[in-house]
Amino acid sequence: DQVLHIVPETFQQVQHLQHLCSTLLLDLWKPQLLEDIWAGEDLHIRVPAPLVQEVTDSLDQHIISYKALIPELQELVGQSMRRERSSHRQVPEGYDYTQYHPMEEIYQWMTQIQKSNSELVTQHYLGKTIENRTMYYLQISQPSNKTKKIIWMDCGIHAREWISPAFCQWFVKEILQNYKSDPKISRFLQNLDLYILPVLNIDGYIYSWEKDRLWRKNRSPHMNGTCYGTDLNRNFNSSWGSIGVSYNCSSEIFCGFGPESEPETRAVAQFIERKKSDILCYLTIHSYGQYILTPYGSTTKPPSNSEELMHVAEKAAAALMGKYGTSYEVGSTSLILYSNSGSSRDWAHMIGIPFSYTFELRDKGTHGFVLPPDQIQPTCEETM
Amino acid sequence: DIDGVGHKYHLDLVLEDDLDKDSTVNCTAEVLYHLGNKNIAPDVQFTIEGELKNTDEADNIFYNRIKSLETELVAENIPDSHGNVSPEMEPIRLLAWVASGYVIWQNSTENTKFQLAQIKHVKQVKRSDEYLEFDYMILLHEMVSQEIIPWQMTVLWHPQHGVQVTQDSRQPKHAAE
């Protein structure tokens, strides 16, 4: 990536730059809004690596001079943190599952995963985010003449919970590397299809990489762009807006202006609604806290299949603990955590999906959202 | 429930040494949350069974290292975005962890659950006496509201005299940007 510094000289140049930025969806660092680009004033834009050539060609064509302000942005951001990596990072054979990856790399990873495992994996369009980015899910499905039940898992509904998308990627890798050799996994795939959404809140995730590591919500603009973000996990149509939310945009648990007001929520909800008669299990992955949470958050009244739900969750927690001794608490959100409404897990259960769980991965607060990469492997292994 | 006073909780807990996971110490505590006035910190009484590990050696190494710095220590984003903390900054992080415990205690109610999320900024303040002083800007994560709250705290430390938070104040949301 590069950050370019441009001082437009004429109004025509300003217009061209505005056009370029809006069509290519370039990241405006300074000013923040297209309308604030003026002749004679500093303009800083971040150009993703794949678009650098196109952008600089266009600038050259219009005789607009520019300087690379931060020529190797990715390097700078990653400098103090990452180890040396091979140049084939995008290829799953060289993909480092024990490091956190930015969204661009996750997009490339999905494409690669499908390419190298085309007999099992297909990538599908789910919808668009508020900032117009494409949401994709991966379908892992063994060809067969019987219709199979579905397990859906989404990660990264909250931007700052980086261990969550890391887990989804790990999960996919584990399944694909071991489905032939591991009898449990191969039996699994004979009877079930897996649908994985590695990053639900793509805009928020990118924002947490580039601007604010502890961002949680999506990036929908409210009040004329003075306030950003809806908590996607308060935005589903499950007792929406009733408890454990805020109606104030500046809150981290702002539930939006109505149930499913956010495109990301709608994209997931519409898909799951369509497939609900075949979906056996809905899993949504969060951090932190080390919990396996069952419905509901909006009421302490237990769900109809409460016993079975708890039984399965308790077995999962025991299996998890068997790996590294990590203890997970099991129970309904409203009883062991706090009250909330509009969560995706509650909604999934309310529309009839029998097994619906929220996983809150490591840790218990020592590192919280900023879990060091050396914990990615053990966290993922035990959760597997 | 204590009528007219507040809610008292009796706790049996196990303290685990963060630096030596096998080292544990049993502890009992009583916590009293006062009714009404949310500006009073909960009362805490506790007893520890046995002794906490002696940390003199590590304390002195850290103390001497900071004392011998030519310019005052300044650092940001501990841990960094990926969760990494350099070895030199680890004691700075631990000190913030302890000091933030005090701030959290002073500001806790039955409806809050705070954790230290990150040190945004730390600056050493030169002193003429033997104490070390650090001015921290930390980010606290409050679990129920999910808010990230910037908090300024001034921390004094000495190997023999322990940790003291001499000043602390909650900051507006944008203070850490």
Automatic annotation (TrEMBL), chain A:
Recorded name of the encoding gene: Cpo
UniProt similarity note: Belongs to the peptidase M14 family.
GO biological process, one term: proteolysis
Molecular function via GO: metallocarboxypeptidase activity; zinc ion binding
Protein name: Carboxypeptidase O
Regions that span the bilayer: none
Named cofactor requirement(s): Zn(2+)
InterPro entries according to UniProt: CARBOXYPEPT_ZN_1, M14A-like_propep, M14A_act_pep, Peptidase_M14
Predominant cellular place of this UniProt entry's protein: membrane
Main function: Carboxypeptidase which preferentially cleaves C-terminal acidic residues from peptides and proteins. Can also cleave C-terminal hydrophobic amino acids, with a preference for small residues over large residues.
Membrane-topology descriptor: Lipid-anchor; GPI-anchor
Active-site residues annotated for this sequence: 360
One Gene Ontology CC term in the entry: apical plasma membrane
Entry superkingdom: Eukaryota
Location(s) in or outside the cell: Apical cell membrane
Domain Peptidase M14: 99-384
Protein's UniProt keywords contain Cell membrane: yes
Key words, A-Z: Carboxypeptidase, Cell membrane, Disulfide bond, Glycoprotein, GPI-anchor, Hydrolase, Lipoprotein, Membrane, Metal-binding, Metalloprotease, Protease, Signal, Zinc
From TrEMBL, chain B:
Keyword line: Protease inhibitor, Repeat
GO cellular component: extracellular space
Domain Cystatin LXN-type: 1-54, 74-177
InterPro entries the record matches: CYSTATIN_LXN, Cystatin_sf, Latexin
Domain of life of the source: Eukaryota
A Pfam family hit: LXN
GO MF entries: metalloendopeptidase inhibitor activity
Similarity remark: Belongs to the protease inhibitor I47 (latexin) family.
Protein name (Swiss-Prot/TrEMBL): LXN protein
Protein's organism: Sula dactylatra (Masked booby)
Upper lineage: Eukaryota, Metazoa, Chordata, Craniata, Vertebrata
Gene this protein is translated from: Lxn
